[in-house]
């Protein structure tokens, strides 16, 4: 595409408005879905930051995370069981950089507190969490942590101040008002305190593309695509200097799933009105990396849809899972004429919601798997869309209706007919 536009949303780093469109992402969304069904992925002309030029407000994203995102579940990514290896790795690194075991530490956007639990196991005693989800706060308090419901744009009034160490692990990529985040961090931080920010490293998206679905890194949940230069520039704009940097190659859940991340340990000093501008060459690096990732994702998508086209044609189809990847996938024309007879999901918050399937002119209601899959025609193909839970779903499917064939919608669809 590569056309220029005046962005709806200012660049989250430098505030620029002129940007180049790298690709437009489209989604087949649930009825009354709080986020837009399409947004441009753009590159800022001024600083080279790549971000989603979404029309959604922070309130829209807050509603999505409260109502539909799966971060409160015990086995969710980001909460503990599926993410234990990452939490342990992070806790080891952080523990060696926090000198006092009684340092006041707060993890913002902590979900169920997997990282806090790992730090507690390493002897830290003054641990707290802030998260927008009431279920997470209940779990944190039951686990013995101080916890408050809220977010960076609406800090809890009673959470206190003067934290010695603030953690934002895989949070900043989800936030519309990035600059407001740094204002909040300064309010919470003690003199001489430090902030640890960890985000997916957008410069490395292409390194893991062969192990994940096409365009997985450009999820509608991830609206800011940072690399190290853009992240440090953002910190400098708010008076945060870099103390240390870590680059990670982490596995999440199953062994084939890899994620590349960059973490920066910031210390607050004199506030700078302007950060040092990036060089012209540095401005171009992130755009080049994302453009390469888009090209590789398109190649993988073409191969995937070739298999899908031959597999779902002229037969009833049941879709198991209504997560981010399938909503992106089902916006593709290959699904237009699919005969979808059922949509099921294990998440009770999605059950009962309507999925207006434009391709078949249907208004499908998401059901629990036991109900939706019980009485389907024998030749119904169950499309398993989950990335992190496919093995569990296959076991459940065998228990519910072992005669139904299935297709795993991963990078390279695996069919059992």
SSE layout:
Layout: E1 4-6, E2 18-26, E3 38-44, E4 50-53, H1 58-67, H2 84-95, E5 105-108, H3 114-121, E6 127-131, H4 134-142, E7 146-149, E8 163-169, H5 178-188, E9 189-200, E10 224-225, H6 228-237, E11 240-251, E12 258-268, H7 280-312, E13 316-320, H8 324-329, E14 339-344, E15 354-357, E16 362-367, H9 369-372, E17 381-384, H10 390-401, E18 406-408, E19 414-416
Parallel strand pairs: 5-6, 5-8, 6-7, 8-9, 13-14, 13-17, 14-16, 17-18
Antiparallel strand pairs: 1-2, 2-3, 3-4, 4-10, 9-12, 11-12, 15-16, 18-19
Helix pairs in contact: 2-3
Explain how this protein is built.
The structure is a single chain. This protein has 417 residues and is of the alpha/beta class. The chain folds into 2 domains: 222 residues, Vaccinia Virus protein VP39 (Rossmann fold), CATH 3.40.50.150; 103 residues, 3-Layer(aba) Sandwich (Rossmann fold). The strands form 3 sheets. A 7-stranded mixed sheet has the order 7-6-5-8-9-12-11, sandwiched between helices. A 7-stranded mixed sheet has the order 15-16-14-13-17-18-19. Strands 1-2-3-4-10 form a 5-stranded antiparallel sheet. Helix 2 packs across helix 3. The longest helix has 33 residues. About 1% of the residues have low confidence.
């Amino acid at each position: 595409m590569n056309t220029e536009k005046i962005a709806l949303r200012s660049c989250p780093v430098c505030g620029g408005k002129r940007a180049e469109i790298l690709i437009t992402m489209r989604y087949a969304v649930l009825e009354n879905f709080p986020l837009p069904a399409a947004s441009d992925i753009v590159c800022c002309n001024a600083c080279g930051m790549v971000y989603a030029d979404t029309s959604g407000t922070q309130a829209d994203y807050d509603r999505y995370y409260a109502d539909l995102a799966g971060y409160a579940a015990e086995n969710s990514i980001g909460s503990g069981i599926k993410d234990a290896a990452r939490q342990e790795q992070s806790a080891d690194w952080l523990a060696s950089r926090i000198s006092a075991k009684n340092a006041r530490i707060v993890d913002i956007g902590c979900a169920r507190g997997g990282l806090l639990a790992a730090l507690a196991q390493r002897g830290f005693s003054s641990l707290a969490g802030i998260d927008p989800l009431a279920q997470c706060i209940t779990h944190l308090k039951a686990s013995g942590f101080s916890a408050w419901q809220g977010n960076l744009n609406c800090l809890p009034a009673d959470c206190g101040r003067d934290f010695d160490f603030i953690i934002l692990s895989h949070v900043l990529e989800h936030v519309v008002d990035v600059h407001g985040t740094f204002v909040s961090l300064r309010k919470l931080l003690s003199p001489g305190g430090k902030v640890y920010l960890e985000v997916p490293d957008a410069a490395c998206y292409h390194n893991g593309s062969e192990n994940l679905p096409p365009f997985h890194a450009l999820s509608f949940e991830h609206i800011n695509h940072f690399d190290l230069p853009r992240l440090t520039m953002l910190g400098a704009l708010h008076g945060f200097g870099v103390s240390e940097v870590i680059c990670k190659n982490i596995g999440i859940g199953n062994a084939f799933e890899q994620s590349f991340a960059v973490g920066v340990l910031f210390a607050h000093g004199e506030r700078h009105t302007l950060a040092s501008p990036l060089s012209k060459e540095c401005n171009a690096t992130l755009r080049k990396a994302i453009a390469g990732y888009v090209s590789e994702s398109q190649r993988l998508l073409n191969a995937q849809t070739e298999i899908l086209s031959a597999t779902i044609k002229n037969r009833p189809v049941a879709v198991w899972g209504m997560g981010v990847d399938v909503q992106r996938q089902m916006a593709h024309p290959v699904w237009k004429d699919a005969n979808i007879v059922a949509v099921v999901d294990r998440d009770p918050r999605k059950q009962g919601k309507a999925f207006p399937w434009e391709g078949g002119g249907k208004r499908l209601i998401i059901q629990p798997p036991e109900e939706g899959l019980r009485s389907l025609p024998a030749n119904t193909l169950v499309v398993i869309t989950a990335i992190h839970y496919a093995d569990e779903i296959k076991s459940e499917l065998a228990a519910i209706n072992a005669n139904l064939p299935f297709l795993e919608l991963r990078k390279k669809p695996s069919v059992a007919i």
